Amino acid sequence: MIKVTESARDQAIRLMAESGVEGSFIRVGVQGGGCSGLMYDLDFDTEEKEDDKVFEDNGVKIVVDKKSFLYLVGTTLDYSGGLNGKGFVFKNPNADRTCGCGESFSI
Question: Listing from the earlier edge strand, what are the strands of the sheet with 3-4?
Fold first, then answer.
């Protein structure tokens, strides 16, 4: 399961409404790359795939491909609007190490 904080929910709902695409949801994934070996991938999507895992938390639908799910179990999606920049932030209990920018990790 992937949890969604209130600030991430509010920002996601706002961005999805601005996109004007009905039925959109958050697609979260993991791909190779970044300075720690694995990178998070977050996008809005409207089509589920056969092997997707589907969750809903805090009123937001989250879809994760089967492979990425293994790396993301128990992760919380947050949104930070602080002085160091704005953006979605992953709090992943499975990550052994993260890079300084928080966009990549290793297990």
Answer: 3-4, 76-82, 85-91
**What are the pLDDT digits (tens) for 74-107?**
999 999 876 666 788 888 887 775 655 555 555 6
Question: Rounded to two decimals, what is the model's pTM?
Answer: 0.81
Q: Residue 90: enclosing H or E segment and its boundaries?
A: strand 85-91
Options 1.10.1040.50, 2.60.300.12, 3.30.470.20, 3.30.300.20; CATH for 3-99 is: 2.60.300.12
**25-32 and 60-64 strand pairing:** parallel
**Residues 6 or more apart in contact with residue 82 via CB below 8 angstroms:** none
